[in-house]
Fold these 4 entries.
Entry 1:
Amino acid sequence: MVDRRFAILAVCTANICRSPLMEILLKAQLDSSRFEVASAGVRGWDRRPMDSMAAMEAMRLGHEADSFRSHPIDSYLVDSADLILTATRAHRSDVLSMTPQALRRQLHPRRVRGPDRARRRCRSHRARRPGCPAP
């Protein structure tokens, strides 16, 4: 019996910068026999290469980006994902407007770092910029 792989979907706007980098880095770190990683854009183009600056960053980190092609997000990708990583809260909202059932499978990267670190950063920011509202 073959176990189903855990599917991760990385989401950004056009699927040419942030989410492809997430996809490439996750694929490099995770066991491909246990994890399946894909990426898509909420306003993504179809079959576009990765942005040249993002591709250079991938190369700097030791990964190839030449074969990457962008994908617009669709309900199949969202429904198939066990975990959805969004680049921004706006992307999270876009995914939820498409598939509200995806709420429990989404994670925004800021939440990955943990709430304590985010609070410390926010306090530090407010100390440098008086009058900045608390989150």
Entry 2:
Amino acid sequence: MRPPSCKWHHSLYGLCEHSLKGKIEEEQPSPGRFNHVITKVLLNDQTYWVDATFSLQRGSLKNRYNPDFRKALVLGDGSTALTDIPLKNFGKLVVNEDITLADFDNDSAKLTVLSEYTGCMQTIFVPWWQTPV
């Protein structure tokens, strides 16, 4: 059951092609041109594209990662043209490495790696128990 403050409109399906990276409109029209289906969700006056096959995603809808589909043929809304799927800020990975070579005589060394993930990168790579809600 959704919260009472939630304004659910509806969801639609969008046919996508992941290998063409938005250049599907340059191809000849064909139902066989698409190789993936995602969902377009309209919720609280916002549009979200959700790929249910992308597992282990966490966090809010606005932070969910989608592959770089760029375009979809939306089914059920009467559209006859491709719809743009906005690219999300994928986030970034910052890695700091600290190497300490203390003593060459007894082969002692220390490597410290600090990795910081932001945006969608965080929901993909950081374990769920360490991901802020």
Entry 3:
Amino acid sequence: MTAEALPTFPIGRTCPYAPRTEHVRLQEEEPVRKVTLPSESDAWVVAGFDDVRTVLSDARFSADRERPGFPGSAPGTWNPPNGPLRRSPR
């Protein structure tokens, strides 16, 4: 049995004003999907509305970039706490 290759993320965009076709497909067919990032790290894309609500309300999920195992954005990189992918503090 061979392992299925994971899709890469982020998903390419063809039109800046329309939803990405692949994102719409994920919402409908695979609302929670494991992907590979440009850093070659694995991550999960959560695209279904109810699944997103669950993740955002569950303290077991973290956006802490200093946490061990947090996926980077490019090969061999680390996302600093105040980097471009970090949410602004409230």
Entry 4:
Amino acid sequence: MTVESQLSLVGDLAADVSEVVTDELSRLAASTDRSGSVADGLPLAVVRAHSVADVRATMRIASAHRVPVVPRGAGTGLAGGAHGVGRLKRTWLEPELGADSINVQQRIKAALDLLGILNPGVGF
């Protein structure tokens, strides 16, 4: 993603969503859970939705820019459950879970992510 497209995305979000933060501390806080496990990278921005309209606008804008959205709840995922399997962990995924499990997970993701925008290239 180019710097220009990143700026465009953040600008579109800021124009239509109640609260969008891009400071490093907020992005770092959003990339971890209470276990202390930290994701492989930081999000470009953090949307703090205040309404259903904020969620709708976020999803519409993310879809238009073809960028993934990772929802975050209370940050209580176990051992990094707040984020998906990162690129750095991909080599250990099949030996750990087995080929059949990976195949099922890939089919579920394909069925739920028809546009291929949820964590593209990450995990599967």
